[in-house]
Amino acid sequence: MNMMSPAPAEREIAPGKVWLVGAGPGDPDLLTLRAARLLMAAKVIVHDGLVDARILAMAPAAARLISVAKRRNRHSMPQDEINALLVAEALAGRDVVRLKGGDPFVFGRGGEELDACRAAGVDCEVVPGISAALGAAAAARLPLTHRDSASVVSFVAGQCKGLTEQDWRGLAGPGRTLVIYMGLANAEAIAAKLIDEGLAPETAVAVIENASRPEMRVVRCALVGLGETVAGQNLRGPAVIVVGAVAARDGRDFELRALALEGVS
Ligand code: SAH
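Structure tokens for the assembled complex are given below, as produced in the milestone run.
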């Protein structure tokens, strides 16, 4: 008998498919239609801690929800175990909706999960989501690019191996917007690094916490005061830090104007 051929029972199971689905920044209205459709038809959902409870509540009552929540310094499930879980579920014949905050391919380790599926011969499809930078910018009414103030926008991870060795020069400064994900814990070091790399200490910064959620906060400061502001305002995240002239724009002007228009109609 050829030991390489699978047992008949195994051979009969058609593998399921893994969907890497972006859940956006929080507000369920910011899901794509494709994400909502998949979620509402899902049998197995593997989700991160960042996925909003209101979104999880859209899953069918019978769906199996598996949390692989990760918090800084507290990994409840290591990435290789998440990869193995997705592959095992699919090989057992089940379709899996892998729900991730924001977009799966922006600091979401979606690439690693895609690779694991590929290596195991499991079909994997990616559904993009609204990444935190975009959701936060919209919610706070801070255009990431603007003809008057920025024509370049960069996303960086503020919590990663060798932060200080990373070269961020050219990512921030006049005409540029820098959006830092996962930066709160290192806020002070990040500000010092940017100033060290040549950025003016008075460069405008906006910290947008819990974007698109009811508890959203937008806090502004100068780059030099970032560490103090994060501590003083008790910013705990999730939050993005926006560095550059666009961060100085005051979104409240727009709110007031919208209210005035409502009064007219
Ligand atoms: N894949 C996600 C990012 C995951 S990394 C995306 O595309 O958005 C986690 C970081 O995303 C957090 O530390 C924070 O910087 C940012 N983030 C996620 N949700 C957010 C929200 N609602 N408001 C502000 N920042 C958020």
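Residues 49 and 71 are 8 Å apart (CA to CA). Residues 25-26, 50, 100-103, 106-108, 131-132, 136, 181-182, 208, 210-213, 237-240 surround S-adenosyl-L-homocysteine (CB under 6 Å). Further analysis is deferred to the final report.
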